Amino acid sequence: MAFGLSAMRTLAAAFAIGTAAPALAQAPAAPSGGPANTLDAVKARGTLACGVNTGLAGFAQPDSQGVWRGFDVEYCRALAAAIFGDANKVKLVSTTAQVRFTALQSGEVDVLSRNTTWTLSRDTSLGLDFPAINFFDGQGFMVKTSLGVKAAKELDGATICVAPGTTTEQNLADWSRSAAVKFTPVVIERLEEIVAAFVAGRCDAYTTDVSGLAATRAAQTKPADYLILPDVISKEPLALGVRQGDARFADIVRWTHYLLLAAEEFGITQANVDSMMTDPRPEVQRIVGKTGGLGPMLGLADNWGVTVLKAVGNYGEVFKRHLEPIGIQRGPNAQWNKGGLQYAPPFR
Amino acid sequence: MPESVTDPRQLRLPPKRPIRLSWSDERVRGIVWQVFVVGIVGSLFWWLWSNTAHNLAVRRIATGFEFLRREAGLPIAEHLVDYNPTDTYFRALLVGFLNTLKVAVVGIVLATILGTLIGIARLSRNWLLAKLAAVYVEVIRDLPLLLQLLFWYALLQGLPGPRQAMNPAEGVFLSNRGLKLPWFEWTDAHSFALLAFVLGAIATWLYARQATAKRLLDGRNRPAWPFALLAMLAVPIGIWAAMGAPFTPDIPKLRGFNFQGGLNISPEYFALLIGLVTYTAGFVAEIVRAGIQAVPHGQWEAAQALGLHRGQVLRQIVLPQALRVIIPPMTSQYLNITKNSSLAVAIGYQDIVSIANTTLNQTGQAIEGIAIIMLVYLTISLSISLFMNWYNGRIALVER
C-alpha cells in the first residue's frame, strides 16, 4: 500500500538531501552517497542498491519463492557481479513511478533499472544521467477484445487508465491534441490498482509502454480477451539511471550494458564463456579480460566480463529468458547488424 | 476570569526594581536563555536551508518556483475551473486544490449530518435503532480508512459498463463510469440567479435576527418565511425570467464509449466522498452522543416539567448546551476529513496531493512540491480552525 507512502518517502528523501553531509570531496560514507564517489560508497557498504519496478512481469517481479526476477533485475545482478564479482551482492529496492527519481537523488538507490524513459528535461533538471538505453520501447494502448476497437484513432471519447508522473501521461495528452481524440483520464499510482481498474472495466483502454502492456496482458488469466493496438504513439528509450556528476560510476553502468551486447555479438554465452578464454579473436580476448586490461580502466577486476556473463549471460539470453515468454519480440532491440538499434562501441 | 471573583491580591504588581547586569538577576538570566534558545533554533533552520541549497546545487537539481509557469501537459479528469493539458503547472495545482476543497467541504457537511443523526439514534429509546447505531460506530471506527476507500472503489467498479448501465429514472444512468444526472446548460442568467439566492439567504438571516430581537421586546411573533420566500425564491426566479428564462436541458446520452452531456459524479470522487463521510460520521456520532450526555439530566426533567415534548427538549434545550461540548472535538474531525482526503491518491481522485506528486515527479523538484502540499493543507486547516474557534467563542457560555 504505497499511496501516501510515496509522498512520505518523497518527503523523507527531500529531507535526506537537506541533512546529508555537505557533499565535499571526502564523504563517501554519507547516507546520500554524494555525487562523486558512488563506487567507493557501494564498495564500503558491501551491496549495490538497485531501484526496480514494484512488480512488472518480465522486468521485475517476485516469483513464487519471493525471489525477484526479470530483465531489469538481471541488470542489477550484472552490475553487482561487475563491482563485487558476486551477482548476489545486490539489494533490490522496489520504487513506484513517482518516487524513483527522488530515491536515486537522495541516495536510497545507487542505480535505477526501472523502465525509465530518457528525456531531455529529466537529463538536465533532475540531477541524473542516463548512461545506456537497454530497451527501446514505445507507448501503445491495450483494450478489451470485446470493445471492438482496432486502432487508437477510434478511441475518441474513451476513458483511459494511465499511471501518474510518467512520460506516458504527458504523451497521452500530446497525442490527444495532435490526433484530435478526446479522452477522460483515470490516474492511479499503483500498477496493481490501475490494472485492476482497467480489468474491472473502469477504463476502455490502458496505456503504457508496449512492453508493459505485453507483460500485463500475459499476466491475465485469459490474455486472448485483451488486444494491444498496433499504434505506437511515442519513442520510449528505457535507460539505466545514475546520479549526475559521477562519470566513473556512469562508465561502469554504461559498459556493463555494452558488455552484454558485445558478448551476444561475438557469440559469448553464459554456458560457453569459459571455453571462450581460448578464443583467438582479439576483441573476445579483451572482453574476457585476457588482454587489454580494460577492467582496471573501469576500476573493476580484470575478469569482470567473465563474472558478469557467468552470472546473467549475454543480452540475447537475458531477453530470451524474461521477455520472450511474455510475447515481446526483439524488434528494435535486435543487434545493429540484425536490423535493430542495439549497438556496442568497440571493446578496445 | 470575571471581575466579580478576581482575587484582589492578584491586582498588586511586584515592586519594580532596576535590572542589574548580573547572573543573579533572574530577568537577565531569562533574557540570556531565551536569546540562546532562539539562536539555536534559528541556526538549525539556517543550517538546514543552506545545506539543502548547497546539496541541490552540487547535485545539479533545479530549484525555485519557475516551473509553475511552464506547460503542465498532464491530463486531469475532474476540474471545477477550465483546464487543458496545455495550461500551466500553477493552473493544474489550482485545479487540484479546488478538487481537495470539493471533497473536504461536501464531506464535512455530510459527515456532520450523518454523524449527528447516528449519535442521536444511539441514544434513542428504540432498542433496535440504538443497537444498529452502536454497531455502525464500532465497525466503521475500527477499520482503517484506506481499506474502506478501496472497498467502496472496488464496489463501484463492480457496476455494469456504460452500455449496460442501470437506468433507474429518465436520464439517470449508473455505471462503472459514475453517476450521470440530467442537467441544463449553465448560462449567465443562472449565475446571477444563484448570486441573488445567496444574497437573499444572507438577507433572510439578518431579517430573522431582527425579528427575534423585536419579539423579545414586544412579544409579537413576526414569521420570517414570507420574507424568505420573497428574497430566496421570488427574486432569483424574477432575475432569471428577466434575463430571458434560458433553459436547455442537457440529458446524458450514450455515444461511443461513454455518456455525453449531463452532470457526472465520477466513481473516484464518489468512493472518496462516501468513504470519508461514513468513516468520519462514526467519530462525529460519538462526539454528539458525548455532548448530549454531558447535559445534566435535570435539564431534561426541568424542560419536560414545562410541558415540552421530547423532540422539543432535544432541539431547544439539550442540543444548544451540548454544542459547547461538541464543537472543540468536532474541529479536529473536520481537520481530519480534510487531511484524510489525501488518501485520494490510492483510488485515483486527482486532489492536490496527486497533482503535486505528478508535478514534482515531472519537474524533479521534490522540495518545492512538498512545500506546496504543506502550504495548501496548512491554509485549509488554519481556515477551518479559525472559523471553528470563532464559532466556539460565539456559543460559549456567557458569564454574567
What Rg of chain B do the Cα atoms give? 28 Å
Q: Biggest interface pair, residues each?
A: A-B, 64 and 54 residues
Could you tell me the mean pLDDT of chain A? 88
Class from helix and strand fractions of chain A: alpha/beta
Instruction: Decide which structural class fits the backbone of chain B.
Output: alpha+beta
Describe the main β-sheet of chain B briefly: 4 strands, antiparallel
Number of domain units of chain A: 2
Portion in beta strands of chain B:
5-15%
Largest beta-sheet characterization of chain A: 5 strands, mixed
Mean pLDDT of chain B: 89
Shape of chain B: globular
Strand order of the largest sheet of chain B: 1-2-3-8
Low-confidence stretches of chain A: 1-5, 22-35
Number of domains of chain B: 2
CATH superfamily grouping of the largest domain in chain B: MetI-like
Structure description:
The complex is a heterodimer of chains A (348) and B (400). With 348 residues, chain A is an alpha/beta fold. Chain A has 2 domains: 3-137 and 237-338, D-Maltodextrin-Binding Protein, domain 2, CATH 3.40.190; 139-234, Periplasmic binding protein-like II (D-Maltodextrin-Binding Protein, domain 2, 3-Layer(aba) Sandwich), CATH 3.40.190. Helices cover 37% and strands 18% of the residues of chain A. Chain A is built from 13 helices and 12 strands. In chain A, strands 4-1-5-12-6 form a 5-stranded mixed sheet. A 5-stranded mixed sheet of chain A has the order 9-8-10-7-11, with helices on both faces. In chain A, α3 crosses α9 and α3 runs antiparallel to α12 (304-312). Chain B is of the alpha+beta class and 400 residues long. Chain B has 2 domains: 21-58; 89-185 and 248-395, MetI-like fold (Orthogonal Bundle), CATH 1.10.3720.10. In chain B, 65% of the residues lie in helices and 6% in strands. In chain B, the strands form 3 sheets. In chain B, strands 1-2-3-8 form a 4-stranded antiparallel sheet. A two-stranded antiparallel sheet of chain B has the order 4-5. Chain B has a two-stranded antiparallel sheet with strand order 6-7. In chain B, β1 (166-169) and β2 (172-175) form a beta hairpin. Chain B is globular, with a radius of gyration of 28 Å. Chains A and B meet through α1, α4, α5, β8 and α6 of A and α1, α4, α10, α11 and α12 of B.
